[in-house]
Design goal:
- The chain contains twelve helices and twelve strands.
- The chain is α+β, with helices and mostly antiparallel strands and 305 residues long.
- The protein has two domains: 87 residues, Alpha-Beta Plaits (2-Layer Sandwich); 172 residues, Nucleotidyltransferase, domain 5.
- The strands form three sheets. The chain has a five-stranded antiparallel beta sheet with strand order 2-3-1-4-5, with helices on one face. A five-stranded mixed beta sheet has the order 10-9-8-11-12, with helices on both faces. It has a two-stranded antiparallel ribbon with strand order 6-7.
- Strand 9 and strand 10 form a beta hairpin.
- Helix 9 runs parallel beside helix 11 and helix 10 crosses helix 11.
- The protein starts with a strand and ends with a helix.
Length: 305
Amino acid sequence: MIVLHLTDCPVGLRGTLTKWFLEIATGVFVGQVSARVRDEAWDRVKEHCRNGRAVLVFSSNGEQRLDFRVHGDTWEPIDFDGIKLMLRPSAPRLRAKRTEANDGRSQGFSNASKQRTAKYFSDMRRCLPENYVIVDLETTGLNPEVDEIIEIGAIKMIGYEKADIFQAFISNNKPIPHNVSRLTGIDEQMIHEAGKPISEVLAKFSEFISDLHVVGHNIDFDKRFLLNSYAKCGYNVITNRYVDTLSLSRRLIKGVESYKLNSLAKHLGIECSRSHRSISDCEATGQLYIKLLKMMDKGSEDAVI
C-alpha cells in the first residue's frame, strides 16, 4: 500500500497522479503500484510541486515495515539506530536553515530559478483582489454537521480600504460549551440579548458580501459552516470566490512553528486586540493579507522572512 499526501500543489499535478493512484480526499492519494512506478511518480511530484509539500509513505521490508519520503517541508526524515523518524526542527534550526538559504542566494545561485519563482508570485499576485470581504466565524465546535455558528464578522474592503463592517450574534438551540465561552468571551447572556435567527443573519450577510471575493484564514473551516447553514435554511449556496491567507502564508512565510493566525500575527508584528472574536480576527487577517501581497510585490527573496 502507498499513501501520498500533497499540500498546496498545482491541480495539474494531482490530475497526473490519478493515472496511478486513487484520490480519496483533496491531495490524498492511495494505491498499490510497483517500486518503479512509485519512484517515477515521486520524481514527478518533486519536479512539479513548486512551493507545495509532499509526503510519501509506502510498505518496505525493514524493521518498521514502512518507509517514507518528504519534499518541501521543514520536517526531516532521520535515521535513529536503524529506525526512521521525523525530526521537527526547532526555531534555532529553522533560523539556521533560513540563513543558509539566504547565503546561497547572495552567492548568485540559480538566477533562472529566481526568475521562475518571481514570475510564479507575480502571476499569483495578479489573481488576488483589491476589493473583497474579510470573514471570520465563531462556532460552538469544529463539526458543521452538529455544531452551530454563534457569531459572524466581516469587513468590506474597497481598494484595500475599510468600507463597511458586519457583525452579528446568532441564536441557536444548543448551549455554548464552557471552553468556547472561555476562548471567545461569548456567553449565553450575550446570545440571548443580541442573537438573531440564522436565517435572518445569513440573508443580511449575503447582501453585505454581494459578489466580492471572501478572504479568511483557514477559510475552508468558515466555508463549510456557511454552506451547511445556507443549506439548512433553504437558501441558494453562495458562489463567491475564496482567498485563504493560511494557504498563502504557507507558500510565502518560512521559519515559523505554527501558521495559526495569532502566531503569524506575533511573527509579523500585527496587532491583534482580541483573538477568537470575529471582528478582531478579521482585522488581523486583513493586515496579514496586505503583508502577503507586499511580499509577492517584492519578489521571492523577500518572501522568506
